[in-house]
Write a structure and sequence with these properties.
The protein is an alpha+beta fold. It has a domain at about 5-95: Jelly Rolls, CATH 2.60.120.10. The protein has helices at about 60-65, 90, 95-120, 130-140, and strands at about 15, 20-25, 30-35, 40-45, 45-50, 60, 75, 80-85. The longest helix is centred in the last third of the chain and has 27 residues, at about 95-120. The radius of gyration is 19 Å and the shape is globular.
Length: about 160
């Protein structure tokens, strides 16, 4: 899902070459980027988690909205362009907020549907898959549970 061009085409364009990092995991940019052209790879802790190919796709929205460091690195897989939205508050004060909300809702919906499908297929398999109910509940309705340090297994006296 992407936002309409009329919402971002007037923002400055930055060309990117294959291999250029648009946002880096763990860093803060305070900037949104909107794909103009090209393909982008999203990695987290070194693992590829997504590929962005649609013009109008937004990069960096989670970090900006949550005021946290970027949770993933986005690298140009091909030559392309991104539109740089540096005044995020002004951008999100208009129609772009609704489009970004729709994009995030669609992403969450796909994630929940995927986890529910995994639960349906493998829920009876035991092991850690029993925690899928908790994950689904937390993703859709709640705040993360308070962390409880320690382990549920018996400590190994030989460590």
């Amino acid at each position: 899902m992407a936002i309409p061009g009329e919402l971002y085409l007037d923002h400055p364009v930055r060309p990117v070459a294959a291999g250029d990092v648009v946002v880096a995991e763990g860093e803060r940019s305070g900037t949104l980027f909107v794909v103009g052209s090209g393909e982008f790879e999203v990695t987290r802790e070194g693992s590829t988690i997504a590929r962005i190919t649609d013009p109008g796709s937004v990069i960096g929205e989670g970090s900006v909205l949550l005021d946290t460091p970027h949770g993933a690195t986005v690298t140009a897989a091909t030559e392309g362009t991104v539109h740089v939205v540096s005044d995020v508050d002004a951008f999100l004060a208009g129609d772009a907020a609704l489009e970004v909300a729709r994009m995030l809702a669609a992403r969450l919906n796909r994630l929940v549907a995927y986890i529910a499908d995994v639960k349906t297929q493998y829920g009876g398999a035991g092991g850690h898959l029993g925690m899928l109910d908790e994950i689904l509940s937390e993703l859709t309705f709640g705040a993360p549970p308070a962390a409880e340090p320690g382990s549920e297994r018996e400590p190994d006296p030989y460590y």
